[in-house]
Design brief:
Elements (H helix, E strand, L loop, with lengths): L6 E4 L3 H12 L4 E5 L12 E2 L2 E2 L4 E2 L3 H19 L4 E3 L2 E4 L3 H10 L25 E4 L3 E3 L1 H14 L3 E3 L8 E2 L4 E2 L9 E4 L19 E9 L9 E3 L1 E7 L2 E5 L13 H12 L7 E10 L8 E4 L6 E5 L5 H18 L10 H10 L1
Parallel strand pairs: 1-2, 1-13, 2-10, 7-15, 13-20
Antiparallel strand pairs: 3-9, 4-5, 6-9, 7-8, 11-12, 14-17, 14-18, 15-16, 16-17, 19-20
Helix pairs in contact: 1-6, 2-4, 2-6
The structure holds flavin-adenine dinucleotide (FAD).
The site of flavin-adenine dinucleotide has 43 residues, from helix 1, strand 2, strand 14, strand 18 and helix 6.
Length: 355
Amino acid sequence: MLAQPEFVVVGQGLAGTALAWALLRRGRRVLVLDRERDGCSRLAAGLMTPVTGKRLAKSGRWDELHPTAVAFYRTVEADTRTRFFQQRPAVRLFADDAERDEFHRRERNILRGLVTRELHLRAEWFAAPLGGFEMPHAARLDVPQYLDASRAHFRAHGSYHTADLDPRDWELTAGGVRIPSLSVEPRVAIFCRGFDTGADPWFGAVRFNAAKGEVLTVRVPGLAEERVVHRGVWLAPAGNEVFRVGATYTRDRLDTRPTAEGRAEIESKLRAFLKVPFEVLDHRAAVRPVIDAGLPVLGRHPRHPQLAYFNGLGSKGSLLAPHFAEHLARHLCDGGELEEGLNVSRFLVQTESRG
Ligand SMILES: Cc1cc2nc3c(=O)[nH]c(=O)nc-3n(C[C@H](O)[C@H](O)[C@H](O)COP(=O)(O)OP(=O)(O)OC[C@H]3O[C@@H](n4cnc5c(N)ncnc54)[C@H](O)[C@@H]3O)c2cc1C
């Protein structure tokens, strides 16, 4: 028999896990539920880089999100006595003259303090005829390890249960939500389901702009680079000459099936800068829950305050989740105001008034 929780968190990906920690730290009784299949967090490379995209933009709200994420993951490491977060420089190689020129234009203003010109790359491993730059403050989260350590902690505190929920069975009550299959009635249930095409009677009107991503796992005999190297794709060390390479970004066929085109694209981009041969060990795909590019969507349901939502972490779940989980927890527990523009109610008010 499960203890009666005050909050039920549906989904233990990057969103649900960070939210559960934020609620537990406030001394709340929390039950996290996950069906333990699908979900894109376990495929994420967990990269946090201050400079992103072809235009070499400074990652949105980096100065605010990055320190929060570092402090958050370090605290969870201490609480779970596990190591899964690494602060290590990453390297970006210029793909063409335009990129290099853009770097030179931005180096002394927008990118000041975030980049250095020191590359320290081994010429027998990497082709870098146009050069590149290093990002000394890059970081990387080992997402599966973080999720597993968190799950073990939640379970040990009676705050985790494996369940595949169908919210259509739930009943809204005066005091909260009744989940008959588990005989629990939390005051608030928060949907952290990522890009899930399953039925959702309350938040189903939220429109995704989701993007599929494919990733290869490769063995590169003799390659001992310890930093993540970016050039069209990222090459991220996984230990023992094994690396992960990705990712594609496409809006067609939003499923988890790896494709021959995806593999060919990653391999060709990798060959553009890796001089040594590699062997493909694994190939996987997942769908990023993009709603509004760069920002999540969260908050209570406008008509049913016992239901809340935290989703839309897009391509940057590791960086965004700690800050916005804290923001939502403050709102749910202490009545803190939600930041303008993030509120899920904007997707729901329209549909409610129409029908
Ligand atoms: C190829 C690829 C590479 C990426 N690389 C990075 C990266 O380097 N850095 C980065 O920060 N981000 C990266 N991302 C993005 C990152 O993966 C997402 O931002 C993040 O995983 C979203 O987390 P989430 O918790 O919202 O969703 P999910 O991880 O999808 O979690 C949702 C969870 O809810 C569960 N669930 C859903 N419905 C139910 C139900 N009815 N009952 C029970 N459980 C349910 C699912 O099983 C799942 O566990 C990458 C994504 C992809 C696809």
